[in-house]
Amino acid sequence: MKIFRILKSSISDAFKSVFRNFSLSFASVTCTTITLILVSLAIIFSANINSFTTNLEKNLTIVAFLDRDATEEDANILLEAIKSVDNINKDEIVYQDKEEVKVAMQEESEDFNAIMSTWTAEDNHLQSLFILKVNDVKHIGKTASEIAKMSKIDVVKYGEGMVDQLVMVFDFVKKASIIMVVALILVTAFLISNTIKLTIISRKTEIEIMRLIGTSNLVIKLPFLFEGFVLGIIGSIIPVLLTIYGYIIIYDKLGGYLFLKVIAMINPKYFIFYVALILLGIGSVVGIIGSYRAVRKYLKI
Amino acid sequence: MKLIEIKNCYKVYKNGVAALANFNLEIEKGEFVFIIGASGSGKSSLVKMLYREEKPTRGEVIVGGVNVAKLKNRKVYKFRRKIGVVFQDFKLLPKLTVYENVSFGLKNIGMKEDKIREKVTKALKRVGLKEKLRCFPNQLSGGEQQRVCIARAIVNEPKILICDEPTGNLDPKTSKEIMDVIEEINKTMGTTIIMATHDKEIVNRMKKRVILIENGVLTGDYLKGRYKAHENI
């Protein structure tokens, strides 16, 4: 087919051009490689933070202590009231009456067990409680104070202060890494665009000759677009390999945890291949966008 | 059959320079025409209009049935495929071999490789460069480079071959060889040749139709013309 022959020759021209304009291509590939390594670090970092905060958020709970005189009936009324609060995860409401709280405490510690094992029902001055999880951890404070206002609720605890700050910090880190990734992608596109621009300028005579002997605009432009694509792909090879092998090595060395035992790293099994695919995708798309921009701007034919 | 018709053609550049004024010309199929005139007389503008590198400011330039004045930019490439152009400075792609240079245009229109090989071999044989197809332009002499340029221009067997001072950079002996090649193409392929030149010896020796341009105006059209009559230019 004619179109395939044209495509084939455009692709082979693109490869030839990459090697014939070696110094220029090398500069562009190096810049792409460096940028994509930074992009890879940013993705890995933000994904791990994201995974860690998601885990943390899943385990964040509100504990609502009932008044000591609250009856089973009061607890049932409260359950309905709590269910009607928007941010509460309805499937994970746990109620423990004071007997169950006592048993749980006894199981938790030998000392508690020693003291509480002698208690009768009348001696038990513990409070019945609700353990609640929220849908959106950002609004945990508001939800907690809403529950605290309910009658027969004595006090509500959710690790206030620390949780709020942690949520804010992680939110900031997530946003900052997204901004960084976007900025780096733009820089890469600009660099590739610049390389293609220089290629176009250095091949001005060639383009003029192509025009004079009846080459269609598309055929003139295609090799440049493919060239951007090829530069993007070549530039992403080292970042992809570094991501795959680097992450596995770091994961193994650190035993799957970053700094503290609480911060679990994402298992590399599928994760590194997703990141590698993203890098290849960014490399190729950015390459095409960069060369398209240069072709549009500098190849007025 | 008229292959080229130029009617009431004017060409004025943006800086106000008038290159052609009320220019009229008809060229028949299979003719060999020299266009002569002093530097700045307008012959290059005329030749450039024939392959639509320039557009007339007013009037009609009809080449092979196509009015180049009305031809849209995006359709120019299709028009250029029907004509061959030979340049003074050869305009070969330095990083491509002789074979690649000649096959370049054919490859870009998606022609099959075996068909391309057949046509390129034929064209290179015609210009006497069959043995040098793997050479790069910088490994060839000026005359040989011009032969490659001619082979590239005729490879798709165009009806018209436009030559813009093809011997301008060559010594007399090589110029004669090039002219022999071009004349052979005119005779055997029936290709219409339009050649802008300064070379008196060639014009006088070949005794073809001569068009004389002075200050953008057609001042002479001689069927078996000679440069001698216009020694002042």
User: How confident overall, as mean pLDDT of chain B?
Assistant: 90
Relative strand content of chain B: 25-35%
What percent of the residues of chain A sit in helical stretches (DSSP H or I)?
over 70%
Question: What's the average pLDDT of chain A?
Answer: 83
Strand order within the widest beta sheet of chain B = 6-7-8-3-9-10
Quaternary structure annotation? heterodimer
SSE sequence of chain A, one letter per element: HHEHEHHEHEHHHH
Largest sheet of chain B: 6 strands, mixed
Taking the alpha carbons of the first and last residues of chain A, their distance comes to 26 Å
Greatest interface and its residue counts?
A-B, 20 and 26 residues
Helices and strands of chain B, in order, run as EEEHEEHEHHHEHEHEE
According to DSSP, the number of beta strands of chain A is 4
Instruction: Enumerate the spans of chain A where pLDDT stays under 50 for 5 or more consecutive residues.
Output: none
Cα shape of chain B: globular
Low-pLDDT runs of chain B: none
Characterize the overall form of chain A: elongated
Report the β-strand fraction of chain A as a percent range: 5-15%
Q: Structural class, from secondary structure content of chain A?
A: mainly alpha
Instruction: Summarize the biggest pleated sheet of chain A.
Output: 4 strands, antiparallel
What's the alpha carbon Rg of chain A, rounded to whole Å? Answer: 31 Å
